[in-house]
Amino acid sequence: MQLEKSATAQEIKKAFRKLAIQHHPDKGGDEQIFKEISAAYEILKDEEKRKTYDQYGLEGLKEGAGGGGGPDAADIFDIFFGGGRRRAPRAPRRGEDINHTLNLSLEDLYNGKTIKMVINRSVIVGPPTECETCDGHGIVLEIRRLGLGMIQQVQRHCPACQGAGCSVTRQKERKIVEVLVEKGMRQGEKVVFQGLGDDEPRLETGNVNFVVKEREHDTFKRKGADLLIHKTLTLNEALTGFSFAVTHLDKRQIVVQSKPGEVIPALGSSNKAFVKMIPNEGMPSRGNPFVRGNLYVHFSVKFPSDGELSSEAVGALRKFLPGRPPELNYNEDEVEVVNLSHTDMRNFGKGGMTAQEFDSDSSDGTPEGVQCQQS
Questions:
Q1: Which domains does the chain have, with CATH numbers?
Q2: Tell me: the pLDDT tens digits for 276-302?
Q3: Of 104, 115, 209, 322, which is least packed with CB atoms within 10 Å of its CB?
Q4: What is the pTM of this model?
């Protein structure tokens, strides 16, 4: 909408109302434009300020007198009167996207697959019919009288069209699509079908997104493009060597074995888990499946239980294993020989009698039920 420079106050007021409805943020309009419209109207409705603008332009308003840019200056009033105002074109408003969860196994994400899915959508048939109540704006203005000559102007959604600005005829549409799950896709990534959402009047149709949800795997744990498996070794395997088979996510059989003389410790550096790696046996990278992550193996060593080793086995171990314990020379009548009990580090610091237990005893420090006999 453009007005002549000679527009009356009534014409400016009418133009402001229509522009305010058109650009109101609640109706998807540009908030900055709405603010500029309101700022321009506050000046144009004042006779003195409008005369200054007509004569000296926006610069004259800034300086409070006659100086500066002149009536042809490009400023916020161009939205009323036209002129040199230029704005970058805004992207068309779009309806809401529809998201569907795509439950996938780790095998699916490793190998990739194509899945046929059904999309049920609502489409508009024929052109929309503009609402006569709100003239297609979707909102109406109400004047409320507050008494003593005061009124309040309120905007609300049009009750006739429920804020849509028009009425439409809809029908259901069933569409079958093929969802391509690429190798290496990750949790939360989307397969997007543009323009297959529900039709909305005066809006670009939204998209349908199939969102990846990765199911847990019994053998492999994934982090990024890397995979992790857990392997428990016997003490024999940890000391003398091991060999075990793994069925990979593409059904390949991989045999993992230790190097000659390699010893697997119970813990790694800094008392953390001991982990080794098989390069390039992790997940493929999305977009370039020939670049793969790594496969990590977390080792645990299972020691023999009490009584599981015979005296002959213990003797053989002492004979052949390095680090034989030193023989202690002591007199059994002079030292105290003790054995160990099972416990947990969470009990450390909880031994002895606590202060509370001591306070609950008798006041003279003698436990209850014990009497001291005085002579």
A1: 9-81 (1.10.287.110), 98-214 (2.60.260.20), 221-302 (2.60.260.20)
A2: 999 999 999 999 999 999 999 999 998
A3: 322
A4: 0.61
